[in-house]
Design brief:
By secondary structure, this protein is of the alpha/beta class. It has a domain of about 250 residues: Spore Coat Polysaccharide Biosynthesis Protein SpsA, Chain A (Alpha-Beta Complex), CATH 3.90.550.10. About 45% of the residues lie in helices and about 10% in strands. It has 13 helices and ten strands. Helix 2 runs parallel beside helix 10 and helix 3 packs across helix 4. The longest helix has about 35 residues. InterPro entries: Nucleotide-diphossugar_trans, PGAP4.
Length: about 400
């Protein structure tokens, strides 16, 4: 018999584990996952040319509708809400202060991002029992000739702080966008501390929409030992950057661990349940194959979707070393907001070295400082239109 026939007869019959592994990979990676994941935005199988435009338009329309609803809500609330239920009276030394940094948007004004965020905060801030989950402060950093109308509308319901006319005039010097954004952020950090001296601070940008479990998870984070040994905790990282195939070392460990657990569980199951008559055993070679199999499946599916399982309980949220990008939602335990303000003041921000990069490098370079991220995200970033950078005509999700 020719050698090639002997090879095929030996390895390509169904009883061969090589054949079984090959068929399993073809069915999984060429049929099942493409069919299941072609509409999942953060999967490798997502078909951009077919779905990206329509999905982007749907998300924009949803945000626009939510913004218009929020506008009508706050306009009607101006007369309907009693003074006893307003959040404009801020108690001193609260357990948590949420500062929302906002500026007027030249584009995307009809989306009313700030009003969306404040409506969500107003609905969840009372979910902690007799006392509010946090005090809420709006920090309006608009320094142009036109007012931030959304912040103006909220003055009847929330404490809104701004720079004095003299400070606004001084802040109008010609500086780059990234440095201006940093100075605005520092102003809001210090203003919140000066007003109420909170025990902990959360800073949200005005397009960071909190999720329903926002305060529940923050309360759990602050109860963990690491919280008061860290400079900051990031509450958001872009979904497109959450993949396993990433420079972050801890994700590689998580990825390998997921593969090993999945492979071990499957191989231990085969002796008791094996409808396809697989010949795999708990050997080193088969364990390695299934470890790589589960790792590949998890990466191609999208780590973002696996992280969503952690929302079952606040205790399931993962804490890891902080990543570089970005700062829409940040938790500063204790008085670290003051240290952060000092660190930022000592740096000049430019393109490629914005405030998120400055903080990331400070936490890595300064002895004794640490920084962390929480996953999955505690906010949804709804800001398709930026207030400080150029915008495309119709923003896309990717």
């Amino acid at each position: 018999m020719p050698r090639w026939k002997a090879f095929f007869s030996q390895y390509l019959r169904w009883s061969s584990t090589v054949t079984q592994a090959l068929v399993l990979c073809i069915i999984t990676f060429c049929i099942v996952l493409p069919l299941c994941c072609h509409q999942l935005l953060y999967s490798y199988f997502f078909i951009r040319t077919m779905y990206l435009d329509s999905m982007s338009e749907d998300v924009l329309q949803e945000s626009l509708n939510r913004g218009q609803d929020a506008l009508h809500f706050w306009q009607s609330a101006s007369t309907a809400v009693s003074s006893s239920s307003r959040l404009s009276d801020i108690a001193r030394h609260p357990e948590l202060l949420v500062t929302v940094v906002t500026a007027r948007r030249n584009e995307g004004r009809d989306f009313h991002y700030l009003l969306q965020v404040m409506r969500q905060l107003s609905s969840i801030v009372g979910g902690c029992g007799e006392r509010r989950c946090a005090e809420v402060l709006v920090c309006d950093v608009e320094s142009g000739p036109q007012e931030n109308q959304d912040a103006k509308l909220l003055e009847a319901h929330f404490r809104v702080v701004r720079r004095s006319p003299e400070e606004q005039q001084a802040n109008r010097e010609r500086i780059n966008t990234f440095e201006r954004e940093k100075r605005d952020y520092v102003f809001c950090l210090r203003k919140g501390w000066e007003l109420v001296k909170p025990k902990n601070v959360v800073v949200l940008e005005d397009d960071a929409l909190p999720r329903q479990d926002f305060f529940t998870v923050i309360k759990d984070l602050l109860s963990r030992r690491f919280a008061f040994q860290t400079l900051y905790i990031k509450l958001y990282h872009p979904e497109r950057l959450q993949r396993y195939w990433n420079p972050e070392p801890y994700r590689i460990l998580e990825w390998v661990g997921l593969g090993l657990v999945g492979a071990t569980a499957l191989l231990l199951t085969f002796p008791y349940w094996n409808p396809c008559s697989f010949s795999f055993t708990l050997s080193a070679g088969h364990l390695l194959f299934f470890t790589l199999y589960f790792m590949a499946a998890a990466e191609l599916l999208g780590r973002h979707y696996l992280l969503e399982v952690r929302r079952l309980s606040p205790q399931f949220y993962a804490v890891s070393p902080a990543t570089e990008c970005c700062t829409p939602a940040m938790l500063y335990p204790g008085n670290t907001s003051l240290r952060v303000a000092e660190y930022l003041d000592g740096s000049f921000c430019v393109k490629g070295n914005a405030k998120d990069m400055v903080l990331y490098h400070m936490a890595r370079m300064i002895p004794g400082e640490r920084s962390h991220s929480v996953e999955p995200n505690l906010i949804t970033h709804i800001g398709a239109y930026s207030s400080v950078r150029g915008n495309p005509f119709r923003p896309k999700l990717l």
